[in-house]
């Protein structure tokens, strides 16, 4: 998966209007879990656009995100179908199975 780093959630929503589905990852600097999660996602061979919003890049980003969804921890992974949030997981550890998460999220919308 190829990542594109954005500055605002509004930037993501503008893209979501024209793409069928996407994965949004919310991260912050100086977080080993966030760094490992991004590396893991890049290693997957899914044909899903992957966007990263880093809270360290924009001091207003957390407030902007909280108006749309709850961010309980980092990294947070949110699968979108257009502008609709379909599925979300929080955190990164060895028990996370991104392939299963993405497959399940894609299938939710196809039912």
Rounded Rg: 13 Å
The tally of strands reads 5
Rounded to the nearest angstrom, the distance between the terminal CA atoms is 24 Å
What is the arithmetic mean of pLDDT? 87
List SSEs in N-to-C order. EHEHEHEEH
Low-pLDDT windows of residues: none
Structural class: alpha/beta
Strand order in space, largest sheet = 1-3-2-4-5
Shape: globular
Helical amount: 25-40%
Strand content: 25-35%
For the largest beta-sheet, the strand count, sense and barrel status come to: 5 strands, mixed
What oligomeric assembly is this protein in?
Answer: single chain
DSSP summary: helix tally: 4
Protein name: Thioredoxin family protein
InterPro entries: Thioredoxin-like_sf
Organism: Bacteriovorax antarcticus
Structural notes for this entry:
With 111 residues, this protein is α/β, with parallel strands linked by helices. Helices cover 35% and strands 26% of the residues. It contains four helices and five strands.
List the keywords.
alpha/beta, 5 strands
Please write out the topology.
Elements: E1 3-6, H1 9-16, E2 21-27, H2 32-43, E3 50-54, H3 61-66, E4 76-81, E5 84-90, H4 98-110
Quick description:
The protein has 4 helices and 5 strands, in the order E-H-E-H-E-H-E-E-H. It has a 5-stranded mixed sheet with strand order 1-3-2-4-5, with helices on both faces. By secondary structure, the protein is of the alpha/beta class.
